User: Fold these one by one.
Assistant:
Number 1:
Amino acid sequence: MVRLSQVGEFGLIERISRRENKRPETIVGIGDDCAVLKLPTSNIKLQNKSERTKYIYQLITTDTLVENVDFKKKGLSFFHLGRKALAANTSDISAMGGIPTHALVTLGLPKNTDVSAIDELYRGIDSLAKKHKIDIIGGDTTDSAVMFITLVLLGEVEKVNLLLRSTARVGDLICVTGEFGGAAASNFKLPTSKLKTNVKIARKIAKSQTATAMIDSSDGLVRSVMDICRASKVGARLYEDAIPVADGATLDQALYGGEEYELVFTVKKGKMDRLLDGKIKYSVVGEVISPKLGVILIDKRGRIKPIKSGGYEHFKK
Amino acid sequence: MVRLSQVGEFGLIERISRRENKRPETIVGIGDDCAVLKLPTSNIKLQNKSERTKYIYQLITTDTLVENVDFKKKGLSFFHLGRKALAANTSDISAMGGIPTHALVTLGLPKNTDVSAIDELYRGIDSLAKKHKIDIIGGDTTDSAVMFITLVLLGEVEKVNLLLRSTARVGDLICVTGEFGGAAASNFKLPTSKLKTNVKIARKIAKSQTATAMIDSSDGLVRSVMDICRASKVGARLYEDAIPVADGATLDQALYGGEEYELVFTVKKGKMDRLLDGKIKYSVVGEVISPKLGVILIDKRGRIKPIKSGGYEHFKK
């Protein structure tokens, strides 16, 4: 018998994603920040003749937070939890270049849960939903000895603005928004006011038509770069002294910490000017290299430093 | 402090659903078997001039099964569990008159789960997904002390075939497919071979253009009728001797048992012939009456019998 703790989250996902999608609407299935569906189907004709606006690309993502794994109930702010659940999903929509539109909320709750705590949770969700004009259209509520919250978020993106993980090319520069390590430095207890979303800057990046691939940094900067590399079949060289480290954080926290909703994206070298024209604030942290070289880190003295296995992995002990 | 066990699932849902949807695509939010979105949005024009095929109506539903609430792990067939999760969601799509298209699977799993059990679970899901040409396009996997499976199912329906809970009218006849009480009579241990879906007959009913409202019977026959009545602001009279009771089941099991994926629908009296023409097998079990009269049951001797509070409710002790 093989236990889940032996194969880990990545092993499980690989096992699950070995499947063929057959419907014509399915553009991206398991393996990116969101699934992508091409809508509408055959019986619709176009107002705008341009291929660029031919379809709506619908984005779908889901993220689950479980008690004692992703949060502890002791001293928990339910407002914070609700806001965090929507922020995490919104970040996945952003990372595809899209805007969020509709959400479903599933709650697993112990019978003795205080009803006012659930109201607080919804207030946290609504605080972000209102900002981004997201409708909460459904979900499920069920008994559960362990509390959990599963959020499903739909969004949309024009075909021309869709950004995948799998389309980085050798020679591209690797860029990031914001700073890293702040969440880890605060022992993952960032105040609710720091739970921001990145929809606006993600849209700017997507619309600038300069990026070749994008992902969010929720599992850590290095892990995100590795995910782009795996999906794009490329390698990456990161420069230690180019990493924007948050105040009070160590370089290790910036590289591996996670739980931050920044964007990691790749840009064709010749197109960097346009990013600046778009008034997008970003840092160049490395470049895309041959897959043979893998993902490597260059320290301040120009030496190769080993990469630690990146970020958090579920099921591993 | 008010505990969840005091307000119950229905109280919680009412609390949650007191919200206004604002996006133009949102046709139905919380409160029916599925949410309904009108797609595409503004930048698309039509090939077919008829209003009837003007839009795609996208259906979205989600259902969660939790260990020790909806299933026990001891002696569990993971194949059965996976198939049941997809069957339950498919039934919600059917109940709107639609066809299922894409699914997301979220699993909360203890670390010591046997990986081959997860493979079995997916084989169960796939056994139905293949039949209905459903693509599995995403989901999430996470550690959880208590096992749970959350399935999200997307579907679509032509505007003209969409059937809601809220559109039954006084004078309509109440009809059902199949028989009731079989699941309860087997102590909710129906063999996997009996886990069938009702997509075909639901589509026949929808396309016959005779039904005014529809719902699935997963929470029990009486509860389903009550749900239609609440949403449509009508009452209902059910005739005890018209209820199709499954072999070996009692009348009470047929009325209140649940965990069956049959359809409960209302039909305008003058249109019953067309149902027969469509070769749809159904039983007439009652009629829609004034809301002032509530939901009542008439026994074999013509007397009014009290309705028990219908079906299973989460959180209630």
Number 2:
Amino acid sequence: MFFLNKGPFDINFIISKTQYTKKKKYKKFNVKNVSTIEHSKKGDITFFENKKYLNYLQKTNTSYCLIRKKDLVYLNQKKIIPIVSDKPLLDFIIIALLFYPESNQDNDDIRFSNKYNKFIDKNSFVDESVCFGKNFEIGYNSIVKKNVQIGDNVKIGSNCTISNSIISNNVIISDGSIIGKIGFGFKQINKEIIFIPHFGCVKIKENVYIGANCIIDRGSFLNTVIGKGVKIDNQVHVAHNVVVGDNTYIAAQVGIAGSSKIGKNCLIGGQTGISGHLLIGDNVKIGGKSGVIKNLTNNSKVIGYPASSFKEFLKNYD
Amino acid sequence: MFFLNKGPFDINFIISKTQYTKKKKYKKFNVKNVSTIEHSKKGDITFFENKKYLNYLQKTNTSYCLIRKKDLVYLNQKKIIPIVSDKPLLDFIIIALLFYPESNQDNDDIRFSNKYNKFIDKNSFVDESVCFGKNFEIGYNSIVKKNVQIGDNVKIGSNCTISNSIISNNVIISDGSIIGKIGFGFKQINKEIIFIPHFGCVKIKENVYIGANCIIDRGSFLNTVIGKGVKIDNQVHVAHNVVVGDNTYIAAQVGIAGSSKIGKNCLIGGQTGISGHLLIGDNVKIGGKSGVIKNLTNNSKVIGYPASSFKEFLKNYD
Amino acid sequence: MFFLNKGPFDINFIISKTQYTKKKKYKKFNVKNVSTIEHSKKGDITFFENKKYLNYLQKTNTSYCLIRKKDLVYLNQKKIIPIVSDKPLLDFIIIALLFYPESNQDNDDIRFSNKYNKFIDKNSFVDESVCFGKNFEIGYNSIVKKNVQIGDNVKIGSNCTISNSIISNNVIISDGSIIGKIGFGFKQINKEIIFIPHFGCVKIKENVYIGANCIIDRGSFLNTVIGKGVKIDNQVHVAHNVVVGDNTYIAAQVGIAGSSKIGKNCLIGGQTGISGHLLIGDNVKIGGKSGVIKNLTNNSKVIGYPASSFKEFLKNYD
């Protein structure tokens, strides 16, 4: 929706663009899309590199899979056509940029429209493609970029930048927050450092509150998701692909690194940092200023850095 | 000043709106205001729930006090009329929203005025009710909302949002800072999550410097106060009801949680976090990246998390 | 370039303005500039106070040096004329403000020009003195102040403020970032608290990426430098005089205190804090949420607070 799919492309054309793939001739086929192994469908091309995702490899209906030679044993080659690559992720990135060539940057173009003049009076710029529901309010000097979807009773503050986002009903986004920009991810392909494409978006569900000067980056190959009823204080950073479960509360200055999943009904104390690619269960309580570096099961209660039990944290403290 | 008091209201009308109060008929009386037990005056209604405030309960001149049955023994019922509630704070919130129905949100309305045209040339919007002294400067794309009071020689940077604030002479607020928005506080009343009303403001005294992208939330039932000569570096978060004493220095990325009081002449190192509801004395030195979780007496010198002596912090460190 | 040098001034006039200098009559000489001992040239005045800079004192070609009586033994008085001061830094500050009287503040004046009208359509204000290369893009509601130099293929997001900066080719600065403002430094001279003058600038070299809501303060007596290929995530704070080496990656919410030098090819994890005046070598890896309080040699790998080896950090952690 936010990035135009330039495909389909013939598989042989795709392969010709890769850098680390053993070149061979495939049967002509129009590949429809790129997608992660978790979400890949018939007609798509995906990649497999991390054993953590082995269960998805076994279930996927993808048509093509970039894969290292040594991992071929895991692939059902009757169902899926392997594309042997020394660096499946890097070749996937190259291919993703074929399909979504604008997804590795932020775009500032806004098309004006008379229907949104009332926002221009406040120096706020809302692209003519933005659709919003009843009772939409926006402050001063804010920007809402193309194709953003906004539900009923949504309030966006001043000096905000909203892009690549789907925002449900009853959401408040406070002043200075930036939602939907590209995340922090780079890869070296040959000698060049390039941005990882970010063709995902940010989904913000009902009744979410986001404080001031927060940043929520859009997903790279997936979406960043903020669940229903989540409340986020000021200056919080939510990296690409993070999923925050319903009704979780996040205090000020928290940082959540890329691809971590936070459960429902969690309480995360101020200035806490959560490493990337973690699974935090439901009803977890994390004390302020903690550093969480491993998965946490449901109902965990941790504090400190590395985060462990409250008792351990306070053992030498009077 | 910032929120219109819709009262007075008859005490029986007030009681009829509560959720956790034992209903009974009181003598007709026009209640003038809601206030905390520390500041409550004759004619007001307040609440008592936390034993920490017992000394204020004994001194208050309030007319009515929401109180749990078990706490009635602490109340001088000759002087103050008790209103027995299972949840005094929640009923107080309901009542506060009767008096200040707009205090649980941020409002973006600005009335323009010819007299402030010169700011509009810079895309800055200053409400016509704002009063300011000599030598007021404001940058680009900033907003100053209704009833804000600004002294002499005040300088506000670009992309700032200032609301619900009383700013004294010789104050500098740098680019991107947001002063006076609602704080982070929610309560569940029946099944609904609501914002705690914030009818307090932010008071910034003489000679204060505030860096860039800082946030100072307004008080809920009290004010947030930044003392004379306080210097605050970039990206600092000061939560609702915090009081910072005169001439205290706060380095970058510090977070101070709600209702803590910091003394005079303190030095707070960068990235430090201070928990809520603490009392930090005068002349306290807090090393960078500390986590302060208990009160600190005058002249304390602490570091680490939990913050303790420098000696303890460095004991295993060469 | 960013601050007009009001000199030269006769040495006797300069001395007459100092506060802590023993007054005596010097031979008439027009002092051209103020500079740090590391960069001082013939015709300049500098100061010496910190033994760390003794090697520079022995090499400098400065004409005058503010120095404590007890340090005179280190000075080659045949070459350099000493100016004995009880507080060399404070007197240097007074003198620096003679040469650069506007360097202790941020200035919001922007002169408009027809040639930059296209930016004004986006509510962005670019001073007519700004020079930029090919393919310059700027978002909405941003400000670029006087004399900023911008190379080819530079992209500045929305709600940014850029001042006192020299930006090379292929640089991206994301939304809400503030580059080149005055740093956090105050000194008391007699009874008055004053800003340390900041007549340095920010140099951003080729291929740098800066995330959203970041702040990079300009140098005080030197420049703040961001090396080639450096990538900086969101909400990072880089204080005055910091030098970041080429190709170093800095994750979100990191804070680097004043005058620290970071080497090349370092990886700095999210929420890390680095104290001021440190030397961090090349190829250093710093784990997330670390607090670095001493110098680190090349190829160090540290984590925790105080940052030490990974083994030490995890020794009691399962």
